[in-house]
């Protein structure tokens, strides 16, 4: 119930305006967001790199509704790729198609993502297409297929979500292509026609898909903070003789830092998703929805003020 309420609130423009001007919310959001500027995010990544953790940049922003804003977002990503080279940090990039203009014009979105993939290819880097709510799954995968087949990019990968019933088929398709998949549970409010309503089913599907990706996938990203599923992936890989270099664990900035460094110490590849920018509200609300303790912490700070 709480999860659904927070996910619904994540779409509210009015609440967004309130939150952006609330000092406590802003302060707490900075636990999950590496700052409002590219410089701050680059410094946060340099710190992570010192502990052996790789990163993926996310410039916050989604559901953009003008061509100008979509083109500007693509320019920013090209700038990020260049910043990675000039600062020498170890990071790739993650983006949302609705930030690149998917809702405005699919051709413009395609051209924008091609520009980013092209620059990433020149710089020997990689572009991950984040997955948004289920109303975008087909369009995201169609765009991915165009990038892969029509434009011929191989430095691009997708995200698939274990809460969707359809995902096993999508994992198999990506494994057949040799495309890199990030597996996550899924962060949006979904109806039970398309997604498992019970968390135990989402988790069981996550374990099943992890097996498929570790066995047949191309350098999958196991993106979860769930220590049981992480242990499961480690044990499965070790039992099958799948070396730690063949996959990576991924987590979100500011979540389970202890586990991030433990995994590096144990010899696993670890990548952290590092969001930055002024558009932190919907991202932050999804993080609150994932963990009621976060909500209580924010509320107690707001009340204290
Ligand atoms: P689960 O929610 O079961 O949490 C397991 C444990 O992790 C909790 O008990 C708690 O200890 C800790 N934890 C989890 N979330 C926390 C939080 N917010 N604050 C503090 N502790 C927390 N989703 C999506 O739909 N599309 C996408 O493209 C992506 N991309 C993405 C990239 C990366 C690198 C990660 C790690 C995650 C995503 N996600 C995502 C989000 C994902 O779908 C999911 O919502 C969150 O990762 C939370 O699910 P867990 O797998 O961590 O398990």
Question: Mind sketching the topology for me?
Answer:
Elements: H1 2-9, H2 13-20, H3 23-29, H4 38-50, E1 54-59, H5 67-87, E2 91-95, H6 106-122, E3 127-129, H7 137-150, E4 156-161, H8 167-177, E5 181-184, H9 199-216, E6 221-223, H10 227-239, E7 248-252, H11 257-265, E8 270-276, H12 281-290, H13 292-304
Parallel strand pairs: 1-2, 1-8, 2-3, 3-4, 4-5, 5-6, 6-7, 7-8
The protein binds dihydroflavine-adenine dinucleotide (FDA).
Dihydroflavine-adenine dinucleotide binds at residues 130-131, 159, 161, 184-188, 223-226, 250-252, 255-256, 273, 287, 290-291, 294.
Characterise this structure.
The protein is of the alpha/beta class and 305 residues long. It has one domain (34-279): TIM Barrel, CATH 3.20.20.220. The protein has helices at residues 2-9, 13-20, 23-29, 38-50, 67-87, 106-122, 137-150, 167-177, 199-216, 227-239, 257-265, 281-290, 292-304; strands at 54-59, 91-95, 127-129, 156-161, 181-184, 221-223, 248-252, 270-276. The protein has an 8-stranded parallel beta barrel with strand order 1-2-3-4-5-6-7-8, surrounded by 7 helices. α9 links the parallel β5 (181-184) and β6. α5 (67-87) packs parallel to α6 (106-122), α9 packs parallel to α10 and α12 (281-290) crosses α13 (292-304). The longest helix is centred in the N-terminal third of the chain and has 21 residues, at 67-87. The protein is globular, with a radius of gyration of 18 Å. It starts with a helix and ends with a helix. It binds dihydroflavine-adenine dinucleotide (FDA). The site of dihydroflavine-adenine dinucleotide has 23 residues, from β4, β7 and α12.
């Amino acid at each position: 119930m709480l999860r659904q309420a927070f996910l619904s609130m994540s779409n509210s423009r009015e609440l967004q305006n309130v939150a952006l001007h609330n000092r406590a919310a802003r302060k707490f959001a900075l636990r999950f967001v590496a700052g409002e500027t590219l410089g701050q995010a680059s410094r946060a990544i340099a710190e992570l790199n010192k502990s052996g953790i790789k990163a993926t940049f996310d410039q916050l922003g989604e559901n953009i509704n003008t061509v100008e804003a979509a083109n500007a977002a693509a320019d920013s990503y090209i700038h990020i790729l260049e910043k990675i080279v000039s600062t020498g940090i170890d990071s790739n990039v993650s983006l949302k198609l609705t930030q690149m203009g998917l809702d405005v014009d699919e051709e413009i979105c395609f051209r924008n993502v091609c520009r980013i993939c092209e620059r990433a290819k020149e710089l020997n880097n990689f572009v991950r297409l984040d997955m948004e709510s289920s109303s975008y799954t087909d369009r995201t995968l169609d765009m991915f297929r165009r990038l892969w087949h029509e434009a011929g990019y191989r430095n691009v990968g997708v995200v698939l979500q274990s809460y969707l019933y359809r995902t096993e088929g999508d994992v198999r398709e990506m494994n057949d292509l040799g495309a890199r998949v990030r597996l996550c549970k899924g962060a949006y409010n979904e109806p039970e026609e398309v997604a498992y309503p019970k968390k135990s089913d989402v988790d069981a599907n996550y374990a099943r898909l992890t097996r498929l990706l570790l066995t047949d996938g191309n350098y999958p990203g196991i993106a979860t903070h769930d220590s049981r599923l992480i242990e499961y992936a480690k044990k499965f890989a070790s039992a099958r003789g799948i070396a730690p270099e063949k996959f990576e664990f991924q987590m979100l900035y500011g979540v389970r830092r202890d586990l991030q460094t433990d995994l590096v110490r144990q010899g696993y590849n670890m990548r952290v998703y590092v969001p930055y920018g002024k558009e932190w509200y919907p991202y932050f609300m999804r993080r609150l929805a994932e963990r009621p303790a976060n909500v209580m912490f924010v509320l107690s700070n707001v009340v204290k003020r």
